[in-house]
Amino acid sequence: MRFRLTPRETSFYDMFAASADNIVTGSKLLMELLGADTSARAEIAERMRAAEHAGDDATHAIFHQLNSSFITPFDREDIYSLASSLDDIMDFMEEAVDLVVLYNVEELPKGVEQQIEVLARAAELTAEAMPHLRTMENLTEYWIEVNRLENQADQIHRKLLAHLFNGKFDAMEVLKLKQIVDVLEEAADAFEHVANTVETIAVKES
């Protein structure tokens, strides 16, 4: 870690941690959706929307702090990239839940639960990693594991697509379900973007 003579704005660390904790909340709502009756999904979607709005607020707070800070803990573009990628995760998770409700999906295809389990694990790892930005220590295993999870998510996604296009689903149902599993895959990609940004920051600060 480079020695710095100038003070740095430290509230960014707390805001990144809060944003990541909110993503854990979102992942738990995704898990809740899996076991919920169709009648309960609208209420879960409402709570997910509230979590997504909280995520937006956290992102805007980071941007505001970035614009008003003369000295930042690491490069401004990396702060912007990290905040944006964290926000993307919540956006994709909220979109997936919303689509399930809007499309009146009665039963999610087998394999979606594996997608969501991967997202839940990535959310936990991301929340655990954010406090370590203060010292840039003990982060290597985090980005390695998240990249591994993203590769796992890719495999699950491909299997889901093969399942959807096996001829057993109505064409319109395929379109609906494919959009949902694609959005969940985008959430996995966004977790990888966060991990890659953290790795970039750590390399620069080493």
From TrEMBL:
Gene3D superfamilies: Phosphate transport system protein phou homolog 2, domain 2. It comes from the Bacteria. InterPro entries: PhoU-like_sf, Put_Phosphate_transp_reg, UPF0111_domain. Belongs to the UPF0111 family. This is Pit accessory protein.
